[in-house]
Amino acid sequence: QVQLQESGPGLVKPSETLSLTCTVSGDSITSDYWSWIRQPPGKGLEWIGYIYYSGSTNYNPSLKSRVAISVDTPKNQFSLKVNSVTGADTAVYYCARSVRGNYGRHYYYMDVWGKGTTVTVSS
Amino acid sequence: SYELTQPPSVSVSPGQTASITCSGDKLGDKYASWYQHKPGQSPVLVIYQDAKRPSGIPERFSGSNSGTTVTLTISGTQAVDEADYYCQAWDISTVIFGGGTKLTVL
């Protein structure tokens, strides 16, 4: 059974860097795409970005200048960094296994999600 | 940037059919997915590639794509189906979510 678990500080000060790690069990991180998604309080889901085990990444254009996702294949983990955070970055952050392909039309979906971790940006 | 539009809310009586729509430009050129999200839980994939159900998702969940609109249909809606539902698609290497629809089972 594939499981994902987010970990990291629950409180980050404004202007500092938010750092989260997702630990994958039951699957090899070298076999899929891996995403980060967040949900601010009272709002909908927002895709942050994804990484392939090779290190190839893609980010939400609205966050691209502040976000970095990396992978640690020996530890079967991938990580998220968001710099220069503000209150708008307060959210529940989810990591998810993703499936990408092309059957004449491109598809990408998240089939296994972590439980989520709440990050609050406050001094 | 590409956008997916969902109605903010849909209401349905128990046992009836709920339909949640998601519209976007040339959505028929893309595959769509649907997620169920209950408060305090992580989202669950209920439909992928427009109409496929993951293992463990009840048969009452179905999906369709008609060109500019994708639809999630829940037949014989149960109280346990009350949740927020999000459509999602892939556009030029980015993942797009709709704004979400709150399904209320009255």
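qc> The mean pLDDT of chain A is 96.
qc> done
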